[in-house]
Design brief:
Elements: H1 4-24, H2 29-36, H3 40-52, E1 56-61, E2 64-69
Antiparallel strand pairs: 1-2
Helix pairs in contact: 1-3, 2-3
Length: 70
């Protein structure tokens, strides 16, 4: 089970990711991890949160994917 503190932390990280995308435009997961010093799971959870809220879109770039705000 996930505690309320865990959910709050995911929401906070989602805000950090949203702000980074807002300021710098589309980014890869690797770039988001690096610039904010976040773990893979933190970034993936934040992306899930933002996707569920329909705030991001996914752009295919070659073999990779960029995360962008809608």
């Amino acid at each position: 089970m996930t505690s309320q503190d865990d959910v709050s932390a995911i929401g906070t990280t989602a805000g950090v990711v949203w702000k980074e995308l807002h300021q710098n435009g589309p980014m890869t997961v690797a770039a988001l991890k690096k610039v904010q010093n976040l773990s893979e799971s933190e970034v993936q959870r934040a992306i899930g949160w933002l996707a569920r809220e329909e705030k991001i879109r996914f752009e295919k770039q070659g073999k990779g994917v960029l995360i962008a705000l809608k």
